[in-house]
Write a structure and sequence with these properties.
- With 347 residues, this protein is of the alpha+beta class.
- Helix content is 29%, strand content 22%.
- It has two domains: 145 residues, 2-Layer Sandwich (60s Ribosomal Protein L30, Chain: A); 166 residues, Alpha-Beta Complex (Phosphoribosyl-aminoimidazole Synthetase, Chain A, domain 2).
- The chain is built from eight helices and 13 strands.
- Strand 12 and strand 13 form a beta hairpin.
Length: 347
């Protein structure tokens, strides 16, 4: 049944416990809110997946899963639905996979507005379409008031890694150039301002975007890319530390090269935060052999998702497993892993 042909049986304005009870009310919610937007192939309890890329000798499947608990559910530049699609697509893409299929599970708090749910589902469908990934199955649960803070979303993504492609931090070598595709910290700063607890006003928008097409452009231009990570929770600092430790290499970055908005820097100075640890939802860091760095930068800058791409540092044999930054004052500091989180509930 197509989306246009499905009955519009849902008349409620808010989610009730009956919408999770397995009966007609639940069926109406699933058909008119979720299936109407995602248009999955049938209404079965599982999706049957086929793709020509799987037939290539040496092709591998990639699987990732993530849960999203952001507060607020809607924010400048996106919402929890956009975040769920982009976050899962990006986890696949930075590992070299072509994102293909997505499942989405929703835990909905009783009393949640149906209109809000429709907006979030619509943004998920639109983002999935842009990213070239299909939402093919899912699940819906309703819990009592106070048990879920509005809405939680869990997504699982499946992708296909083409034959011969292998991206992993263990392949990083001394001299490899570290590149980011754009500004840092926008998502974390946006969520902080959107919560309204600190009376902060800002025009910053989340960088939430899917990076699958960008990664394909980078790999085509620089086929020997060593590894990539998306700098989500823990920000750039955590992503670099994870890569340095996995590679057994040191990483040196240049503070003057880091792409940071003055508004983000100013907000961090007021609140005593470090922008290197602010979350991003559309920013990746990749390591490329020095001979292919210019080609990678050109390919990234040719796409809107990477128009602000810059080289920020390189891998070194010294201080293995450690990230160090040359400061604007000519000194150096260790950029360590955070013990906890600067800002919870950001993705």
């Amino acid at each position: 049944m197509t989306a246009a042909a499905r009955p519009g049986g849902l008349r409620d304005t808010r989610v009730t416990l009956s919408h999770g009870g397995g009966g007609r009310a639940m069926r109406d919610l699933i058909e008119t809110v979720f299936a109407a937007a995602f248009d999955p192939p049938g209404m079965e309890d599982q999706a049957r997946l086929t793709d020509a890329a799987l037939a290539e000798p040496g092709a591998r499947l990639a699987l990732t899963t993530d849960s999203f608990v952001v507060t607020p559910l809607e924010f400048p530049g996106g919402d929890i639905g956009t975040l769920a699609v982009c976050g899962t697509v990006n986890d696949l893409a930075v590992g070299g996979a072509l994102p293909r299929w997505l499942s989405a599970a929703f835990i909905i708090e009783e009393g949640t507005e149906i209109a809000l749910l429709r907006r979030i589902v619509a943004s998920m469908a639109a983002e999935a379409d842009r990213a070239g990934i299909r939402i093919v199955t899912g699940d819906t649960k309703v819990v009592g008031r106070g048990a879920a803070d509005g809405l939680f979303v869990t997504t699982t993504g499946v992708g296909v890694i083409p034959p011969g492609r292998n991206l992993e931090a263990a392949l990083i070598r001394p001299g490899d150039v570290a590149i980011v595709n754009g500004v840092l910290g926008d998502h974390g700063a946006t969520i902080l301002a959107a919560r309204g607890d600190l009376a902060l006003s800002s025009d910053i928008r989340s960088d939430c975007q899917a990076l699958g097409h960008l990664m394909e452009a980078a790999v085509a231009a620089a086929p020997d890319i060593r590894a990539a990570r998306d700098a989500t929770r823990g920000g750039l600092a955590s992503a670099l530390n994870e890569m340095a430790q996995a590679a057994g290499m040191g990483i040196e970055i240049d503070e003057a090269a880091l792409p940071l908005r003055p508004e983000v820097v100013g907000m961090c100075e007021i609140l005593g935060l470090d922008p290197l640890y602010l979350a991003n939802e559309g920013t990746l860091v990749l390591f490329v052999p020095e001979t292919q760095a210019d080609a990678a930068l050109a390919a990234l800058r040719a796409r809107p998702e990477g128009c602000g791409a810059v080289a920020i540092g390189r891998a070194v044999a010294d201080h293995p497993g450690q990230v160090r930054m040359r400061t604007a004052f000519g000194g150096a500091r260790i950029v360590d892993m955070l013990v906890g989180e600067q800002l919870p509930r950001i993705c």
